[in-house]
């Protein structure tokens, strides 16, 4: 099932070099807002307040200075004072170019003979904004280039600067960089946390979808398969043995009713109905009716229940569903005349083994190959076993009763839990075994 597109977008954005510049800053804010708000301070604090403060500090002083001196360059001084606050209005969307423009205006203001003398605080806000929004390279290059140009210009034009002002300005720029880096780090951590939470919610939802799909598949595939078989029997016998055709119709009615009840249970869980069971009721007590329902004149199914202690509800559900799906596959695909179902236990394991004398799969066929051939059923059985910390085997069986599948078991306890080959056991298959499905589950399931 596909994941939501925003995750790929944000993952790509997070891996992109933050020094690429302006577009990254706007994209960062947009993606952050999609996860529950901005990843940093609100717009009023982070955009409008710096603009207002820069305007208040720089522009009035530049106006008064130009009026007082009647300097022909006073208008240029005023324009430079306005560039800083004006450029900050676009810092959120274009943080890189803004810090470059503001730094250039600050250098020009410093080098003008008619400079007002007011601190060009807009450059500090531009540096903070650029670094916080990912345009660090722009900020570092703008500050470095601006500082070098300012010192070079002071030597060329013989401008005498107060050493205290140089020290304070340098410290101010360093502090602005530190503040910007701190804000950037915080924004990144917030976004990563929100992204991780989003992925966790989607993973949980995906796991639940898989579980529900597995339940629906096991319920519907088995029931519809049984209905199909019984309907075929009824059509075949309706003329010569109408009483057996009527029995087949009764079985169809019972099977469809059971399937509807289980589907209602799953749908009730999906709708979060309080009286709906969390899982469809399926346990080992229903194995006898399962075997009886799968038995026909053409297919004899036998059950050997060797379990003496009651497994947990999760283990019972897994054993039942694996037996149910295996019987469905035997009915639909194997062409078998006999199927033997055995559930057993040892000190540490429960097992379910289903063997038939039908058409065997190719020797050496792996579980992955069989999954591709038989669809979702094999995959669902394997998932059920692995979720409880167990193991799963499926494949052809040779004349000696040993599995030819590459997915065989190594644990001696696990092998003991499975019991002897059924075709050699009392009450087992009379002829050669063609196909085997076996799952072994620990009594203390991991519950993954």
TrEMBL record:
Which region ranges are annotated with the description Disordered?
A: 1-27
> Which InterPro entries does this chain map to?
HATPase_C_sf, HATPase_dom, Sensor_HK_TwoCompSys, Sig_transdc_His_kin_sub3_dim/P
- Mind naming one GO cellular-component term on file for this protein? membrane
Record GO terms (molecular function)? ATP binding; phosphorelay sensor kinase activity; protein dimerization activity
**Domain of life of the source:** Bacteria
Pfam families attached to this UniProt entry: HATPase_c, HisKA_3
Gene3D superfamilies in the cross-refs: 1.20.5.1930, Histidine kinase-like ATPase, C-terminal domain
**Is Transport a UniProt keyword of this protein?**
no
Membrane-spanning segments = 44-66, 73-92, 98-131, 138-159, 165-183
Recite the UniProt keywords alphabetically: ATP-binding, Kinase, Membrane, Nucleotide-binding, Phosphoprotein, Transferase, Transmembrane, Transmembrane helix, Two-component regulatory system
Please state every residue range assigned to the domain named Histidine kinase/HSP90-like ATPase. 314-445
Its EC number(s): 2.7.13.3
Catalyses: ATP + protein L-histidine = ADP + protein N-phospho-L-histidine
User: What protein does this entry describe?
Assistant: histidine kinase
Give the organism, scientific name: Subtercola vilae
